[in-house]
Amino acid sequence: MSRFVIFGAGGRVGSAAVAEAARRGHRVTAVVRDPAKYPELGSAEQVTVVRGDATDAARVAAVAAGHDGALNASARLDMPSEEYFTAAAHALVTGLGKAGVERLVVLGIASTLETAPGVRIMDDPAFPEAYRLFSQGHAAEFDLLREQADGLDWLMVVPPMDLNAEAPVTGSYRTAVGTVIEGEGRIAHADLALALLDELERPAHHGVQLAVSA
User: Fold this and answer.
1) Minimal CA–CA distance to 26: which of 173, 150, 149, 200?
2) Angle at the Cα of 113 from the Cα atoms of 82 and 94, rounded to 5 degrees
3) How far is CA 51 from CA 10, 17, 30, 142, in A?
4) pLDDT in tens, 59-83
């Protein structure tokens, strides 16, 4: 049994990861900004729900102490994407370092994946500008981790464009490093949670964007 801290635990991906970690018998600290909004998160005996913010390095250090790995599935839509994701990356690198947590998995976005060498989905001139701005936050987060996360074993897991609560659960997933995966390009939250927990339990990829798809 391990102990994992999950930031953004109230979201669809975060809550799926909490459920998968609990199913595997791990202890989970589920971090949300307002625990009162997520009473169902603490329904499993091994899950503890706490208040926190992935952009607050001191709070990250406090809630992460004693854990074996961390997942950041948080997002904010009420502030610029690049501002949020770079602030979270800074705080996580600093806070996890202080807490002695060596493994970090962060949730990325498909539009930052390459369709050809050096060409990302978000680079297509026809890609919607509003989505490009949001995608840039994850791109900046990835760059910051590459440049500043010395000593932290980190990975960005990137779902396909169709991250769908209604997608059939297959109990499996495919992977590729940095590139779009051929095929339908969709995955259920529960199957994405498998990939996230596998990389927390048994880290197999390091310092890259790991694309996952059904």
Assistant:
1) 200
2) 45
3) 11, 18, 8, 26
4) 999 999 999 999 999 999 999 999 9
